Amino acid sequence: SGGAARLERLTDDDHDDHDDWTQNRAGFRSDWKAGAHDRVTFMGDVYDGENLDRVALAILSTTPGASPRTFDDRVKVEGGNFVTRWEHDTLSVQAFYDYTDRQSEAFSDTIHTFDLDFQHRFSPFDGHDLLWGAGYRVTRTDTEGSYPFNVNPELRRDDVVSAFIQNEFVLFDDSLRLTAGSKFEHNDYSGFEAQPSARLSWSPHERHQVWLAASRAVRTPSIIDHDGKLTPIIISGGLPIVFSVFGQRDFQTEELLSYELGYRIRPAEALTLDLAFFTNIYDHLRSGEVGGFIVETSPTPVHLVIPVNLENNLNAKTYGAELASNLQIAPWWLLQANASYLRVNLDPSTDEGRDPRFQTWIRSAQNLPGNLTFDVMARYVSRLP
Fold first, then answer.
1. Exposed/middle/buried for residue 242 (C-beta within 10 Å: 0-12, 13-18, 19+)
2. Phi and psi (nearest 5°) for 4?
């Protein structure tokens, strides 16, 4: 088959796949009390390494049947990060910096990220637990691509300003609790976003709890959705035909509305059972839409481009259930089991066979003498088409 032929081409006589990874890493962490109510943390790490990769890049050629250029790439990676955090009773402030550099023949990028975060927890009234905070993140991305994969513009700065608030309060006799809040964000791709959520729990008995929740979540556009171009297929010939995937400046946020209902019971002191039902509604999911033909003269030779534009024309609904159990056989031995069922409906209908309908696993975790742990897990996933 074509797949087998590709594997044969990408493996040498010694069956070396050229996919080794090596990395050197060093780090530190320091924590101390700066007073009766103050705690300070400094931590960070640095790394460098090399990732071997065997790459096949499509090439522009007027020779019919020309094969992709296959080569052994050595991807150089390096980076580091630093975190400092100050905590004072119910206040905390954290600053974070991360540097990542990845250099390869097909695509290279250097990313600088700075993040500042503030949080405060207090009780404005009896029975209320209020948590709020704000943050700012700036990311500077510098890329260098190739014809098969590139980003335009190559240099980009993205700013994200965010805030959140959440309140947990007692509605009735400590058995009925409501947790409600929202995250707010402004980013350079989709503007203002709100992600509210609410969770109501009722405990009629100390061994029983019923809860329900509703929330909205989003995936904001990425630099690839917005500015990326990927060319995975080129049909060589007198006039090469190119299939390219284009990001779109008007790419929208992918949205999720999630609804959950659950029940927890503790039939014995050492045993808990959790049953949850869920349904998720997705809107504006990423899709690929074929556009009109384009004739490009650069790079040479002249070629015909069939564009596949990233759009938001896919919607989906999922529903299912999950059953989880925890059995504390002994203070040093925990047994867990989980089973889940999932159905996915996409509109318009596309490949829906990428997610298994049924999964189950069982895990045994033991704490042994001599600071040893021994874990065993068995997992089953139902058949995929």
1. buried
2. -65, -40
